Fold each of these.
Amino acid sequence: MLVTAAHAMPAVAQSPGVDASVEAMSDERRRGISWSDGDPALRLGLSVPVTNGLSIESAATGLWGSTRHGGADGVIDAGLNWTRQLGGWRLSAQGRYHMFPGASGQDYGEVGAVAGFLLGPASIDFGAHYAPHQSAIGGDNLYLSIAGAIALPNTPFTLSGHVGRSSGDADDPARSARLRPDGTYRDHGIALDWYRGRWFAGLRYSGTSIGGPARRDAGDKLIARAGFSF
């Protein structure tokens, strides 16, 4: 999947307005939980504009037999993103469907909205993402977050951080543990990213309030990443 996408992306990225990227990371973590069993991962991303403010967003990430996602070899995230600027506010709405090649009955979808405000070189974002009741996740899932970032003056570095909270109903506790291994929990993180032209790299700290055996793939961890866009 990743090799085929890598060969196709350079040609697609030559189209006007199309953004593509390749990123390697020491662990694929989402909302403080490892999706790659703590192993390194590779992601290919693509954004294709449709109309003013509306774009098709997709990404393919190698998971190499993820235990959390039924032995999936990867995850493909595909959907639409709508963005609009209102004064100092940047509003966006998304719809995403997560597909897991190499696994059965693991696919699920979610919708989200983010309201962000710019203050000079700094920004703050308020987000809400909701996955309605689906058998693949054993119920529903609501994620609320606050994130902030600031570009450090006269440097190629950006400092950012976030806090989030995951909650929801559990129709099937075994399946709901996939996204919430300890029930309702909080996650937090801090990142320092370097940008130079088309290249980027960074270090990220990730932590959660999850305890007990479920903390195995959700404990404190420092994650490295590097990549480029074209």
Amino acid sequence: MSTVESRRRIGAEIWIVLGLSLGKAALYSVVNITARLTDGTPLAEQTATLNASQSERPWLDLTYQLLGIGFGLVPVALALYLLSARGRGSLARIGLDRARPGRDLAWGVGLAALIGIPGLAFYSLGRLLGITVEVQASALNDQWWTVPVLLLSALYNGLLEEVIAVAYLYERTHDLGWGRVRFIVASSLLRGSYHLYQGIGPFLGNVVMGVLFSWFYTSPRFRHGGRHRIVPLVVAHTLLDVVAFVGYALVPVEWLAAMGAA
């Protein structure tokens, strides 16, 4: 196979994977923010709901939630399967293994702390400036399975976004000859774009998060901690969402109102 043909196949593969996952979400998000901005209602008075209930019947709602998470992970499986064509060391190559559990956990917690506190302040600032919608992180009914489902949802987001937007995209753009800076810009803009439905503030905040995460993943300075290891990013992302989802479900309404989140 010629080099040109190989590059075309890689490019087509990237578009297919993104079209089934984050790229699709980004396109819908662009349409959504366009609708919001042309609605006539200020962004600050609009609402975006995450983890919404799918049915008034608890058992049916639980079924829908689990099916959504399960099928949502199929693009992750596809991306990993495509990378496996390189050989059995593909998971180790992107750091999706158990080689350094303690170190990965420590880096993940550190990254979550580094992003989490400024992220909350950035959200509050965005609400104050009117460029961020009110984000309801959980609208599930209060059932015995609510918290477990929110935990699974957080893990799902961590795997989907970090494996595809960082690990998979880096490997494939590297095959196309992209440099580190070009990859970081593309990955970060992709991350921001599929959060546009939450407003301009979350778009900018997630671009910053994308720069930090993709820079950490590709940085030689963190060869023994983050270099080509996606687990710390999955841990960090999951922890951030756990705090947001479960915290929203458990924190008193008065506190949420004080933060502009209710």
